[in-house]
Amino acid sequence: QQQQQQQPEPVIEPHVLVYNRVPKAGSSTMLAVFKEAAKGGNFQILRPPKHQPSIDREEILSALESNQKTVIIEHFWFPDPPIVSKKIAYINVVRDPFNRSESLYCYDR
């Protein structure tokens, strides 16, 4: 009998993962998952300090240029996207708009 050789699954290895947080759509849970996974030392987490609205542009560019794998947890926008040779992946978690609004209303009460 001829044995079929299994082809390995393709591996997607972005150098940088950008996670755009959406309020009331599981963002706190995702943040906890990223923090737990980062304990293994395989990547760093870059997010704005408390009471600061965003990450400094230079800090983001530094992360994009470094050899360290990075998860950027932030809403950010570049008018002219930087040209980098690193692979960047984006992830968003969204929720049904009505359920999200209802949850936000109950949370704010």
Automatic annotation (TrEMBL):
Pfam families with a match to the protein in the record: Sulfotransfer_2
Main location: Golgi
Record-linked InterPro entries: Heparan_SO4_2-O-STrfase, P-loop_NTPase, Sulfotransferase
Cell compartments where the protein resides: Golgi apparatus membrane
Signal peptide (residue range): none
UniProt keyword terms in alphabetical order: Glycoprotein, Golgi apparatus, Membrane, Signal-anchor, Transferase, Transmembrane, Transmembrane helix
Membrane topology category: Single-pass type II membrane protein
Annotated Gene Ontology cellular component terms: Golgi membrane
GO terms, molecular function: sulfotransferase activity
Family that this chain belongs to: Belongs to the sulfotransferase 3 family.
Protein name: Uncharacterized protein
